[in-house]
Design brief:
It is a single chain. The chain has 858 residues and is mainly beta. The protein has 5 domains: 16-303, Glycosidases (TIM Barrel, Alpha-Beta Barrel); 323-486, Beta-galactosidase, domain 2 (beta-galactosidase, domain 2, 3-layer Sandwich); 495-505 and 749-847, Sandwich (Jelly Rolls), CATH 2.60.120.260; 515-620 and 739-745, Sandwich (Jelly Rolls); 623-732, Jelly Rolls. Helices cover 13% and strands 38% of the residues. It has an 8-stranded parallel β-barrel with strand order 4-5-6-7-8-9-10-11, surrounded by 4 helices. Strand 54 and strand 55 form a beta hairpin. The chain is globular. It starts with a strand and ends in an 11-residue tail after the last strand. Its EC number is 3.2.1.23.
């Protein structure tokens, strides 16, 4: 029922252009699924793509949940009911900026496990996952009772850098054995029997060339067309990809022969609870919002990108016979400098894509079929010129230089920038009376051709073709600005809900509850907890009252540090860190509080120990070693922020002095090879975090076995590296590591609390709660701003809605309307217990601008 050739996919032997919306069912409540699917279909998408998140359904080993917001079958059923095809991506690894890349946290407790490999321990758990998930996909295949047309094998496996042909084949065969008979697909992970896709935002031509060279007789598709981007705590707002750039890149896909596009994301959604992952570098922790700056925002409202794609989809659907049965043919048009062209031709017509690389609008002309045709193209834009396309039995479009949403259903829209002109030439197949209002002009040639010189002004106008049989055809001539006036916007604020707070201290007490004791702190998985907060406590003795440097030799999340009940500070450096702590003579108590900020979802370091996993040490030493580096044989010293170009294997060296320490931890980023006193770090690291280049994951290496007393020499391989953001050394004595640790869960909503009036006087973990009323008429969009708070998580009506951290870029947090009743409760846990007086909850009503005009978008 679904096949393909080199040009396109086919369903029931009919060619189809796949226009797919990435919508993750696990990033919005079930109550919102139908709405977002309806909007995707109304926007012109014919397919829905979703990952399937293993850990979302098996949070604890052997406990499977496909109910409520996890009802995967219902999501597939909705897609089928709405006539939407589905691309299912069950992994088992999905990345997706999702905790652990979709793997359950408890996998990391399995001794000897090797993720994403053909290793038997890993595969036995994958088989159990497949036993649960693949039958659901099977039921909804196009060949059965549903609309699933493709199933992806793994995800970006070749980007993982570990070729494992047997692993990919095991996954493929496991799906086949469980009934999958629709085509398999991969992205950066080719396996025999699957169609390979690419993932990218720009450089479509480069991706097309790779597919043509490496994968014969397959249609070209982009599985993740990154039309937006995710955000991470402390990073910049990710709105750098504009609607204008999106339109250009969409046309790049058409001109390079892509006939399957999956917009990643089309709707991003929210990382509710603690599901946000950790991507790439040292502290790239995903925000709670996964809005992604895409077509439908986090609150299910269409954006400008939605309108761009809606017009693009109408255009593509109209010319589907052209693009799905096309050849890419170069065309030698005489055009001004920085203006290029690419011709796509098929038996059903052709399109010439004119590309303007200039920073300004260009008005020019081209010789097409022996005729000079004028056109106008915007700066850094692509203009499709349509030629020789039949419109029913009424007329043939010989040439069109304006953009269009398509010519179907007896009406069309042609648009351009306000104040610009476009050119339309028609061959009438029947006699017609032409009504063409000013300032548009038209001419009728002796050969029956009609040429229109169209003006796209501030007001829309209609060109009417009235045929002898009483039928007519309307062509609306509008500006792009007019089309985009229908984009919804939010009323400033329809309701502001009063909040009256109560407070309760989170007592860092280890005398009761689920306390586990061990010689060193237990990471989250070893303790047996998915995410949230863990507290750590131990006693140590000091010979005198003083400030001492405590080295934390392995941490993977920010750590709040208390000594003798007093807040000392927060460790923000990850991997290893050091802090000055005031201690008193005699017994001291060191207490730490850690929030799991998300496991790696993309790197070779997946499965890192979250929280604290090694015992801190007293009287240590911290050295930043980014400056003072020498190119071997030269006398000029360099800083790692500006590394000189080094040819061949010349050493890049730096020494440090060690007096009395026997342990050393090195933390760095973007480095592929490090030697310590002539010994390779790779040899020393064993199963520790991998070093890697560029923007990839940082490295944590225990270099103690290579450490010497006195001078020690480091040698870096910095070929093709221009800078390194972090390179730190931590020294300590093994005999001064603090032992006998207690580990306990904290910040548990269900635990009983002593509520009182709000009066925060000290920095201390604290709870706040308030009730608020909600009226549906105040709008379905409900947001909370946690201004003035520090870092923590919050709940509404008992459901955790995510982490918050006031270091940006996220400032507002979604409260799903489906979660609300007339009376509601919000609870906040703040690590520093700051005053919630500036926290506000507001409702918004989506509005459409009053000057909205109805235009055809087929």
């Amino acid at each position: 029922m679904i096949t393909y050739d080199q040009k396109s996919w086919k369903i029931n032997n009919e060619r189809i252009f796949i226009l797919s919306a990435a919508i993750h069912y696990f990033r919005l409540p079930k109550a919102e699924w139908s709405d977002v699917l309806d909007k995707a279909k109304a926007g012109g998408c014919n397919t829905i793509e979703t990952y399937i998140s293993w850990n979302f359904h098996e949070m604890n080993e052997g406990e499977w949940d496909f109910s409520g917001d996890k009802d995967l079958a219902h999501f597939f059923e909705l897609c089928a009911d709405k006539g939407l095809y589905v691309i299912a991506r069950p992994g088992p690894y999905i990345c997706a900026e999702w905790d652990f890349g979709g793997f359950p946290w408890w996998l990391s407790t399995k001794k000897g496990i090797q993720y994403r490999s053909n290793e038997p321990i890993f595969l036995q758990y994958v088989d159990k996952y497949f036993d649960q998930v693949i039958p659901i996909i099977d039921d909804f295949q196009l060949t059965k009772n549903g609309t699933v047309i493709m199933v992806q094998v793994e995800n970006e496996f070749q980007a993982f850098g570990k070729p494992d042909k047997q692993y990919m084949e095991s996954l493929r065969d496991g799906m086949m054995a469980r009934g999958i008979d629709v085509p398999f697909v991969t992205c950066y992970g080719a396996v025999d029997g699957a169609v390979e896709f690419r993932n990218f935002w720009s450089h479509a031509k480069h991706a097309a060339n790779i597919l043509d060279e490496r994968f014969a007789n397959q249609p070209k598709g982009v599985m993740e067309f990154w039309i937006g981007w995710f955000e991470h705590w402390g990073g910049n707002k990710a709105d750098q990809k504009t609607p204008e750039q999106l339109e250009r890149e969409c046309y790049q896909l058409l001109r390079n022969g892509f006939t399957a596009i999956n917009y990643y994301m089309y709707f991003g959604g929210t990382n509710f609870d603690h599901w946000g992952g950790r991507t790439g570098g040292e502290q790239i922790f995903s925000t709670t919002s996964y809005d992604y700056d895409v077509a439908i925002d986090e609150y299910l409202q269409p954006t400008r990108k939605y309108e761009v794609l809606k017009r693009f989809h109408s255009f593509t659907k109209w010319l589907e016979p052209v693009f799905t049965n096309a050849e890419q043919t170069g065309m030698d048009l005489k055009l001004p400098s920085d203006i290029k062209s690419q011709r796509v031709v098929s038996p059903h017509g052709e399109v010439i894509f004119i590309e303007n690389d200039r920073q300004e609008r260009v008005q020019s002309q081209a010789l097409l079929d022996g005729e000079i045709v004028p056109f106008t193209i915007e700066a850094n834009a692509i203009l499709p010129i349509v030629l020789h396309v039949n419109v029913g039995n009424s007329f043939t479009i010989k040439k069109l230089t304006g953009q269009t949403t398509g010519f179907e259903s007896n009406q069309a829209v042609i648009y351009h920038e306000e104040g610009q002109r476009s050119f339309l030439k028609l061959q009438l197949n029947r006699k017609a009376e032409i009504h063409c209002p000013m300032p548009n002009r038209f001419e009728i040639g002796e050969d029956g051709m009609v040429v229109f010189y169209l003006f796209h002004g501030s007001l829309p106008q209609t060109v009417q073709l009235s045929f002898e049989d009483g039928t007519s055809y309307s062509i609306q001539v509008v500006s792009r600005k007019s089309l985009e006036k229908s984009v919804p916007h939010l009323e400033k604020c329809s309701a502001n809900y009063p909040l009256h707070w109560e407070a309760a201290d989170e007592k860092l007490c280890f005398l009761s509850g689920n306390v586990k004791e061990a010689d060193k702190p237990l990471d989250f998985s070893s303790f047996g907890q998915f995410s949230g907060y863990l507290g750590y406590e131990s006693e140590f003795y000091a010979e005198e009252t003083k400030d001492t440097t405590i080295v934390f030799s392995r941490i993977e999340d920010p750590v709040m540090v208390f000594c003798n009940g007093q807040y000392v500070g927060k460790l923000s450096m990850i991997g290893a860190a050091a802090i000055e702590v005031p201690v008193k003579k005699g017994k001291n108590i060191l207490t730490c509080l850690v929030q799991n900020m998300g496991r790696y979802n993309y790197s070779q370091a997946i499965g890192e120990p979250k929280g604290m996993s090694e015992a801190p040490a007293l009287n240590g030493k911290y050295l930043s070693i980014r400056e003072g580096w020498l190119v071997e044989g030269c006398g000029v010293r360099h800083h790692l922020s500006n590394i000189p170009k080094i040819e061949g294997r010349i050493g890049f060296l730096r020494s440090f002095m060690n007096q009395g320490y026997d342990r050393a931890i090195l933390v760095g980023e973007g480095v592929s090879r490090v030697q310590v006193n002539g010994r390779s770090v790779k040899m020393l690291m064993e199963s520790q975090t991998a070093w890697s280049r560029g923007s990839a994951v940082y490295g944590v290496a225990d270099i103690s076995v290579a450490l010497k007393q006195g001078e020690n020499v480091l040698d870096l391989d910095v070929q093709n590296i221009s800078s390194i953001g972090r390179f730190d050394l931590y020294l300590f004595k093994e005999g001064e590591q603090i032992s006998n640790w207690k580990t306990k869960s904290f910040a548990q909503l269900e635990e009983e609390k002593e509520w009182t009036v709000v009066d925060p006087q000290t920095i201390s973990p604290r709870w706040y709660k308030s009730s608020f009323d909600w009226k549906p008429e105040n709008g379905p969009i409900v947001k909370v701003r946690l201004d003035g708070m520090n870092k923590g998580c919050f709940w509404v009506n008992g459901q955790c809605l995510g982490r918050y951290w006031n270091i940006g870029p996220q400032e507002e947090y979604k409260i799903p309307a489906s979660l609300l009743t007339k009376q509601n409760e919000i609870v906040i846990f703040d690590e520093e217990g700051l005053n919630p007086e500036h926290v506000v909850i507001q409702s918004y009503i989506p509005l459409v601008k009053s000057e909205k005009k109805e235009f055809v978008t087929n």
